[in-house]
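Our preliminary data section would be incomplete without showing what the modeling component actually yields. Below, a chain of 136 amino acids is followed by its predicted structure, encoded as tokens that our downstream tools consume directly.
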Amino acid sequence: MGKFEHNLDVRYYETDQMGIVHHSNYIRYFECGRMAMLDEVGLPMHKIEETGIMLPIISVECRYKFPARLGDRLKIVTWFNELPRARFTVMSEVYNQDGQLLVEGSVSMGFIDSATRRPIRCPKTLSDLFAQYLNQ
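Predicted structure:
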């Protein structure tokens, strides 16, 4: 199983008056990591959507350990443990520049046909690409 890393700096607008990242931004950080992972796997979101597939979010889980602060350089680590079927779950961890785990969580997505908006199973072509990384 490959783990994917993406780095970003905490931006001023993501913080409160105390310089601490607002809790809602960690979900955005998960998305940044997930999009970077999809790019690296060879499935950027725009290519997935060009095939007529959409990936709506079904659920998000986020466990907060320590706050990120203005000036922190974050490392978002993203991975998946099993091949997508009708749903796809991606795990994420966010670390600061000192290697301290700040947040951990997961995002589950479903697959839907963009024309009908009906649930579908993950197409084999996508599943095969994910399998290459899962087996590493």
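Residues 4-134 form a domain with the Thiol Ester Dehydrase; Chain A fold (CATH 3.10.129.10). The longest strand covers residues 101-110. Preliminary results of this kind motivate Aim 1 of the renewal.
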